[in-house]
Amino acid sequence: MPALRSLLGEAGFEDVRTYVASGNVVLSSSSDPAGVASRAEGLIAEQFGFDVDVIVRTRDELAEVVARNPLGDVAVDPRRYQVTFLDEEIEAAALARLDLLSFEPERLVSVGRELYTWHPEGIGRSKLWAKVASRGGLGATGTARNWNTVTTLLAMADES
Question: pTM of the predicted model, to two decimals?
Answer without folding.
Answer: 0.92
